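Sequence in, structure out. First:
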Amino acid sequence: MTRSGSHLIWMKRTVVLLLILCFTATLLSCGKNDSLESETIPTNPPLTPATETRIPPTEPVDTEPDPVADAALLFPDRFPIAFMINNVAAARPQSGLSKAKLIYQLMTEGRTTRLLLLTDAEEGIVGPVRSARPAYLDLVVQHQAFYCYAGNFVVIEESPHVNEIRILDALKGDYSIFYRTDHRVAPHNLYIKLENAYARAEKKFGSISPDEPVQGLRVRDQFTKPGVGERVTEIHYHYSQLKESFKYNADKQVYYKYNNDVLLADEQTGQALEIANIIVFHRPHSLMPNGVHNKINWVGEAEATYLTGAGKYTINWEKTSRTDPIVYYLDGQELILNPGLTWVIVVDDSALKTVEYR
């Protein structure tokens, strides 16, 4: 081989070697860059479940007012006084009816009735006041009332509650706070001033304000329909020959009381008595051992009828002991009365049969 040929072959081999070296360097460079890229731009870390922070569910807030808690007690600040009021024709119209918050009407003897008038008013004239009866005692006790009457202590002294009752008896040491008028004949003319009755009660028994409010009936601060009831604008009933009724006045949302179609008014004001709530309350009657005076067992539970705002409602009541208050329920909830006077008609079996709703 000539020298020039050998040189040519060497040059070709050199070029090939240089090409191989360049190609190898390029590959190494690319690998290095890939390595650097993998270090400088890390891949996203593996996803792990985040720690879950559980927020306890918020208890629902009851924004609806509690009708019982928001209602006022009938006698919140003073012990009431329970007056035995005559209810025969010679005693009507009576005084102090417009001062009452609660009136119970029930029989004495001979199917005549008397009124147990409860009030905590500071002043006013009440009467005619008559004598005590045993059937009224549980009502007096349950309202923690002072019992104001005129005589007949002998018929109540056997009661197991007689020592719990704070009495103001005209014929048992308290006559000085009563007075007689000359426009009626005895025994239908005995009257008393509320301020004198409370003054004597405070002197005899201490404070006239309870340490805790007297529990019992509750009343709304404004007239409210308690629900959909049967529309009734009149109630008629009688215990004896006297025909009695209540008739609704839609303009004032009250009932007026009638005795043989004579409108009942307060003797002092001359104004017709306005009644916001009526309860027809049935209890069986029996006689005391003396065979004269009525006996009523108030403890128990049963249905009654409630009227307000021209509506008639069936309610339930319960009284768990002789000293516990009667509690009324409407649709399973404690009954809240409309503001104004409440009249409770207590009927025996015979009087119940005469009750007519119109």
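Second:
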Amino acid sequence: MIVDKERTLVANLSAACAYDKAHLMSNLDAMKTAKLIYSTSFFITSSKESLKEVAEYASSNNVPFAFNLSAVFLLQFELDTVLATLEHADYVFANEDEAAAFAKT
């Protein structure tokens, strides 16, 4: 997120690594009240199904979807999933290294 000219990202990778789609499904009501949905690419390594579900929900329900490329290795090893998710993204976040790696792909 950006405030003035300063950028910050607070990531808890252990949360993404342990995420289960059952949690998403049991909390759909909360997602249905969202005015914007933000996700990182780290969910690709633990719950592609959840990321796909959220991205498709955002598109189908006209909810802006913000997606963070998160890490170069995800672009190197999971490009197909990143590209499929980007089809639903209204906003894309990346740092300089991630943007450069994406440009190369």
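Remark: The radius of gyration is 14 Å.
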